[in-house]
Amino acid sequence: MTALLAGGIVRRTEDRLADGREIVYFDDDEAFVSGAEDRRRPDLRRLDPVAGGSQLRYDVLTGEWVAIASHRNERTFLPPADACPLCPTGTGPVPSEIPAADYDVVVFENRFPSLTRVAEDVPALVDGDPLWPARRGTGRCEVVCFTADHGASFASLTPRRARTVIEAWADRTDELSRMPGIRQVFCFENRGPEIGVTLHHPHGQVYAYPFVPPRSAAMLRQAAEHHARTGGNLLRDVLIAERTAGTRVVLSGEHWTAYVPAAARWPVEVHLAPHRDVPDLPALTGPERDELARAYLELLRRADRYHEGVTALPYIAGWHQAPVGADRELGRLHLQLFSILRAPGRLKYLAGSESAMGAWINDANPERIAARLREVASPGGW
Amino acid sequence: MTALLAGGIVRRTEDRLADGREIVYFDDDEAFVSGAEDRRRPDLRRLDPVAGGSQLRYDVLTGEWVAIASHRNERTFLPPADACPLCPTGTGPVPSEIPAADYDVVVFENRFPSLTRVAEDVPALVDGDPLWPARRGTGRCEVVCFTADHGASFASLTPRRARTVIEAWADRTDELSRMPGIRQVFCFENRGPEIGVTLHHPHGQVYAYPFVPPRSAAMLRQAAEHHARTGGNLLRDVLIAERTAGTRVVLSGEHWTAYVPAAARWPVEVHLAPHRDVPDLPALTGPERDELARAYLELLRRADRYHEGVTALPYIAGWHQAPVGADRELGRLHLQLFSILRAPGRLKYLAGSESAMGAWINDANPERIAARLREVASPGGW
User: Fold this and answer.
1) Are residues A96 and A238 in the same domain?
2) What confidence score (pLDDT) does residue A36 get?
3) In B, which residues are within 8 Å of A361 by CB distance?
4) What is the count of structural domains for chain B?
5) Residue B299 in contact with residue B270, Cβ under 8 Å?
6) Of the candidates A96, B2, B19, B231, which lies 20 to 30 Å from B344 by C-alpha distance?
7) Nearest to A338 by CA among A281, A250, A271, A280
8) Contact residues, B window 126-165, toward A, CB-based 8 Å cutoff
């Protein structure tokens, strides 16, 4: 099934992999390289069905759901070292995950998902004790390939391609939000071996959670309290306060402002928020998406200049969106981009204080982070 | 000042370092190696005063305090590579942090603390905006050396020495709890380069926070809700439920039981809880401390046998104690011991889902973790 998005500049084509997983191509150039029937190839791999053993357990000590995905420890699929599973099929010795001769942007269901489309039934209580509720780990984990070019990075994409990725994120958010039981859709990129990324091909992920994740829950709690006290939207009021103070603003356009949060917890951290109240990526207008493509690329390029001598900053970039269903009106779209690299060769580790107590210690001053992110702006503007 | 603890088996001696920091020796052998005047040496180092630039900022998005300790990024004191700052002075080419010819257990204030004894004044609001409260980062960070033997580990200590460490933890908890403004005392050990430990000498830390850390706050919220609903103490009821179910119990003695929590979030995780309702380490009786020394050593030794071929598991071991002041009655002492090592050479990274969303995915099944921890029990018992 093929459709045109974004006024015809992106062509969307759905297909299936050999084991039934969904794959969606987003083509942005005139050749429509993967959308055309003659460029796609049948996926002839013999694949076992995707494992579905994920379950959720309620951590009664903290009130948080933990996903137990022990099926992932028995991963059978390991590509040969010289075969990238995210390159187009035909460029390597074995078929990759993408049965097309080329592609622009492509999204497919993860073969080893933390949250599974079909989850096995689990008893409602662990060991029958009411202290320990459990549920199926139903959800969705998708992989987003940003380019067929194995050696590229997101920061090296053209604004046109970044725009297509935004279209893909919005598409996936919209579609996964409609799946039964989904409460939060999270589009993110982990970049760099320092945070455990083993596939170097430029890619991100989408998680659709069947619960409100703890950070989202904390933000909703704070937003509800703020609304009850002031009548305002917390994230909008933070944006206004940052723009008013100006001390931590990193870049500002017609539709978007980037700032280092006043209580930044990571050695490098910047948030990017739309000027208009927007719950999620699908709600952005065309002009907002156009500017976002440029602003996001500029932030990533500044990140790669942040530390002298470090040309590829390890980072996590995550889109916080309004939840699906209850409390949706309290959410407001924003990007959180951060790094654990304190200085060249020196990582911020999450040890006792952070991992056992949840108490973050930041050795970097938020105003200095902002000053540095302004200092490394692209000379020609963005 | 010298005093005898634990019925005379431990001698406690206070002293000061050259820059005024406190140091406390806990001697457990008959020679009282460091407590004796003639074994201690004057600390003749010329040290700059300890920096005091820590501040706390309120993260309005999550409701959590973040410590900004940017003075730590300007660390001036770096010991030469061949000089361990935690060995007794006299064994290396330069004076160490410990001006004594030998010691058993010693505790001293960290020279580069995240939370400082004397903190600089900070405006009550960042940029004058009520969204961003700020406070002095007043608190205390101490280092605990478990042995003068540089090549040892906690697991290799004798029960007698482990007992002395417990005495030191209890002493520090008691003393720091009395400091003005302290809300939580946290005794912990980070072990292994995989979590960023750069000093290999066996040591742990004590943090005294001037706020209730996020994990403690979550546990108190859950305990309050549980108490309101059932009248019970949450942590006691979890212990009873684990002992009743038995499926995740790892070891059990007269005074202590160790179990893998039903919703374990780490690839290796075990909790150790006293049978009696106890708020913190100082409240333990002599017999409880005696058994704890043996039970804790046994858990650490099993941890070092957990993965085939890994003889030194990287771990974080942290003592959750009742807060000081409000909600103290809701807390209950327990140890949380966990590792990020999923398999030999494979770490669990805290990437997008954990670090940006707070949603933990565990590839290990809690019941299997428990089975493995039972399997690697010490053959002769503990």
Assistant:
1) no
2) 64
3) 66-67, 69, 114
4) 2
5) yes
6) A96
7) A271
8) 126-127, 129, 131-132
What global pTM score does this model have? Answer: 0.96
Assess A118–B contact: CB distance below 8 Å, yes or no.
no
Q: Which residue of B has its CA nearest to A74?
A: B363
- Using CA coordinates, name the residue in chain A closest to B132: A262
Same domain for A257 and A164, yes or no, is no
**In a domain? residue A53:** yes
Q: Do B245 and A67 touch (CB under 8 A)?
A: no
Give the minimum alpha-carbon distance from A177 to chain B in angstroms, rounded to a whole number: 17
Q: Do A261 and B347 touch (CB under 8 A)?
A: no
Q: Is A203 a catalytic residue?
A: yes
pLDDT digits (tens, 9 = 90+) for A270-307: 999 999 999 999 999 999 999 999 999 999 999 999 99
Which of B166, B184, B211 corresponds to the end of one domain? B211
Radius of gyration of chain B (CA): 21
Q: In the predicted model, what is the mean pLDDT of residues A341-357? A: 95
Looking at the domain assignment, is residue B179 inside a domain? yes
Q: What is the pLDDT of residue B81?
A: 61
Domain co-membership, B135 together with B232? no
For residue B381, being part of any structural domain is answered with: no
* Residue A381 lies inside a defined structural domain of this protein: no
Is B324 found in the same domain as B290?
Answer: yes
What average pLDDT does the segment B210-224 reach? 98
Chain A interface includes B207 (CB < 8 A): yes
Which of A211, A242, A273 marks a domain boundary?
Answer: A211
Q: Are B350 and B307 found together in one domain?
A: yes
Shared-domain flag, residues A206 and A305:
no
Question: Are B190 and B226 in a shared domain?
Answer: no
Structure confidence by residue, pLDDT tens digits, A256-266: 999 999 999 99
Q: Which residues contact B285 (CB under 8 A, 6 or more apart)?
A: none
Question: Which residue range(s) make up the domain with A204?
Answer: 2-211
Give the model's pLDDT for residue B365. Answer: 96
Contacts of B64 in chain A (CB under 8 A): 218, 358-360
Which pLDDT score, from 0 to 100, does residue A229 have? Answer: 97
Is the pLDDT assigned to residue B36 strictly greater than 70?
Answer: no
Q: Report the b/e string of B312-343 with b at 16+ CB within 10 A.
A: ebbbbbbbbbbbbeebeebbbbbbbbbbbbbe
CB contact under 8 A, A353 and B60: no
Provide the shortest C-alpha distance from residue B311 to chain A (in Å): 20
Say which of A201, A203, A320, A334 is annotated catalytic.
Answer: A203
CATH number of domain containing B96: 3.30.428.10
Q: Give me the residues of B, 305-324, that contact A with CB < 8 A.
A: 316, 318, 320
Together in a domain, B157 and B289: no
Q: Are A267 and A342 in contact (CB under 8 A)?
A: yes
CA–CA min distance A334, chain B (Å) = 12
